[in-house]
Amino acid sequence: xxxxxxxxxxxxxxxxxxxxxxxxxxxxxxxxxxxxxxxxxxxxxxxxxxxxxxxxxxxxxxxxxxxxxxxxxxxxxxxxxxxxxxxxxxxxxxxxxxxxxxxxxxxxxxxxxxxxxxxxxxxxxxxxxxxxxxxxxxxxxxxxxxxxxxxxxxxxxxxxxxxxxxxxxxxxxxxxxxxxxxxxxxxxxxxxxxxxxxxxxxxxxxxxxxxxxxxxxxxxxxxxxxxxxxxxxxxxxxxxxxxxxxxxxxxxxxxxxxxxxxxxxxxxxxxxxxxxxxxxxxxxxxxxxxxxxxxxxxxxxxxxxxxxxxxxxxxxxxxxxxxxxxxxxxxxxxxxxxxxxxxxxxxxxxxxxxxxxxxxxxxxxxxxxxxxxxxxxxxxxxxxxxxxxxxxxxxxx
Length: 397
Fold this sequence. Notes:
The protein is an alpha+beta fold. The chain has nine helices and 21 strands.
């Protein structure tokens, strides 16, 4: 233990040997280190030492120092400190480093729309990590090794499986379910396994190259995004839409003839009505809870400039509009926070001398999104009723 400012903190001695009775200590519950007088330290009791260490080491997801810089500049450190000082934060874990350190998006608790990571990019203090755009890679790759594009159903209601929540691009990745899609993918996975077993081990790996990856005893076709070092590779799962760091030894070359047997199955979509709140931590948490790794029905609202969908959970007696549930949760959270801060009052208590501030633009946008989602749900219900009435009419004759 180390005493400072009249209080005691748990600390780990980092110095091998004290110099002039000065040692370097690490505050295990806060994460910072400091030089101190050795006379201010005491042995920690066994009981107190059993409490878990509170400091969690993490790195900011999706950003890196500016071109030509190997580390965060003083300007970045100063600005970051100014933003987070004495502030309650929300951390959304996006991935993990090879050492098990969390890669997170950080949000101010009272401003959960834009991450601190993105703010630093917009201030020109950092730059985003360079990523290969999958669509561009596919279009530029030779047609002799790529399969045909996936033919999407013409109808506007699809049975889908939600395979990935992609917060970095505000989208969801899904796969079509059914005889011509998920069942064919199962058959294709068997072909991947056969090919993997007969292929020679990969000697060299190239960025944008196509390979078979063996992960947790399952076989996947992947595209290499980046080569991190001599052993670790970052890959994109062409049939699932997520990325992962894998060991080079897990990869084998993908035979072009095998690859062309089935179109890539991952479909990236946006959630209708939630575009403005897609990065909100509540949105992400709700999606993880309600949709990820589940089979849903996707209603196609728009096919212009990408697919925009409403997701429905149809596993219960009544269909649940997942988009509407999320929009409602975010709006209630926003209004509760505004009321706590005194920025929101119900319209019923407005007076001439104290005009109502009412909803913020964000809440109004959410209300509009909710209205649109409810209208869509009403249309869906009306459509189902009309279909049932038509069936009844047919049976009358």
